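Input sequence (796 aa), recorded before submission:
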Amino acid sequence: MFKLFLRIASRAFFKDRTSGLINIVGLSLGMTGALLIGMWVSNELSYDRYHDHAERIYRLKTHIKISDTETWHWNTVPLKFAGILGSQLAEIELISQATSGAGSATVKLKNQLIKVEHCATVDSSWFKLFKYEFIDGSQEAFFEHPKSVILNQSTARQFFGDADPIGQILRIDTNECVVQAIIKDAPLNSSFKFNLLLPLKLYLGDPNNFSNSNSWGNFNFNAYARLRPDTDAKKLGQKITRILRKEKNDSTIVATIEPLTEMRFDQSVMSGDEATTDFSTIRIFFIIGLLILIVACINYVNLSIARTSKRSKEIGMQKILGASKKQVFSQFMLESAAMCVVALVGTLLMARLSMPMFNQLTGEQFKLQLLDGSLWKIILIVLTLVILLTGVYPALLLSSFQPISIMKGSGFLSKHKTGFWKGLAVLQFAISVGLIVSTLTIYQQLQFVRNKNLGFDREYVMRLNFPWQMMRDLAGKGTVERMAREIENNPAVSGISMASADIVNHGSSSSGNFEWEGRKENENPTFAPFSADANFQKIFGLKLVEGRWFEESNKADESNFVLNETAVKICNLKSPVVGQRFEGNGIKGQIIGVVKDFHLRDMHEKIPPVVINGDPSWRTTLYVKTSGANASKVVDLAGGLWQSNIPNRIFEYHFLDDEFEKLYEKDQRTALMFNIFSVIAILISCLGLFALAAFTAERRTKEIGVRKVLGASVSGIIALLSKDFVIMVCIGIVIASPLAWYVMQQWLQNFAYRIDMQWWFFVVAGLMAMGIALLTVSIQALRAALVNPVQSLKSE
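Predicted structure, token format:
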């Protein structure tokens, strides 16, 4: 019976190759989109779950109450805190801590300086808590000798090629470290993608580091704990809070513990080391993957129904010869399954070919490994859904045919109500309209943030960061000033400025260290402080709304302040603002000017209250305004001066235009993914419309013939067949518009500065959907209209 069903299915396919190929292509496209999205979603949801006992590992978080309306959320704790918790709380089975994993290190190898990103120092419990695969060497030797280093496989290969790295010496910053072990690269779903690890003992061996870290006021360490089974995490968090309040002598601070498996989605942490993903983004792409799959399945269902008249007599004959309803149902389910399996081959081929582009879109390194069990879980889920969605309804429908009616010539298609198929078409139109509206909204928002006036001129400005550890020595020798003057004297340079912050992505925040006239006792807003020299305003074109900027020859300005408009409002300063007393971060002076608000963070955040001081001791950043055309000459000059004066540090420079683009790199990547998968869904919808148009033309073949005999024109026939689709598009627009508006409004909430969704978004989306539908339908309508009416009347 199974072989018979397969033989019938293959005959049906070759008898109507066009429909079969459309089915295979549509299903392959849909399954490819769903598979790729499924891989990405599965990877995001599985973050850090590969560690042993991952469900019992938690991250320590601290929450600092700044005011009644503001709380800082940190993923760091003081150095001594982890040890105290491990000794006092029986619920903690194991605890470990590390310095920031976002750090970098300068490695000297064979007289070559190499910057290594994603470096950290870890304590002796780290490898007991987290799962690492050691390829060579041992962790025992690593922790036994403080001046040791562990490299991951990729970094070891970069440094030493095929040579044995164990025992090799690397100069890391100022330390000669021995390579003691090589670990396998962390998997894609890891929050700890370290390239280089050092013992915490080495870091704390520096007296300055130890003194700084040993203070309860400094939260510099990430801490993770594995809890004993059946521990109540909420109650344990309360115990941890009591201990922290007692040790720090602070009754407002709160400590919590967060599951390791939820870290990926926590975007509340200020300046967190680990990359995060907004859970709403995962939800959106999951929905898109599901929609792509549904649209592809609708195509199959529509084409199956459109072909019913061609197979109705076959089904009638089978039933007359004794085939049961169950057997007919099984036959068509097997046909659907066979078609889906064939489409799966195309899916795997498409996925393989599109993988490089997909990796570029996601920023990950996915691989289509057919021996990977997790990949086959996704494939089987997608395949099962497709078989059920494409097979069940057509099989039920076709197996319900009455053989007597069919053999008499009473066409099923001419009598059966078409509401279900029209509903499928409306659903496709609604999906298309919703995706077009969403695509327009995302595009307009990203154009808005890229073209919005930032309040300063970033064009052709280069940034150089001097190493803060060496700044006192460099400044004392006059090295920084000498380098700055030589760069300024270059004809391609229109100005230079020293400051203490990155104006494009200013990450520093401070609270509780400020005082001004009229401040209330519980008033402690969070400021964005930095220092700037006399040239800063001119180079960036900042606009003063009151007072003046710092003057180079005015020594008193080193203790004075310039505030932005938001800071003036937050502090509730009364006019005139200039001349009022102000204190911040140990500097006491007065306000000499108010600058118009400018964006020094991305558009996801509101412009913070900015406090700019004139203290030169803060400044480690040199800004160079170039002419643009000769910027490369300025880079070469700065590089030569750097090599001559700071030979033990890597020369790095950044143009602010490039840094600004990087702020929205993740948004751009997400938008591009959304657009590509939306186009795939709309393309599949076009195939479905083609199928439905064929079904409509087939159902009305006799009517078309009669109308042509009675004098109907070709354009009239096309209009007749297109009318229903125009109505369905309109219904789809009505359904999709409020849903798309709601979803996009939720997405726009991620931006502090955002567009308003305009009425024309929906008009354009509707017109595009209408145009796509009419173009697709007209092809089939034209074919039906041009058929000889004699043949049309004979068809039934």
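Checked by second reader. The radius of gyration is 34 Å.
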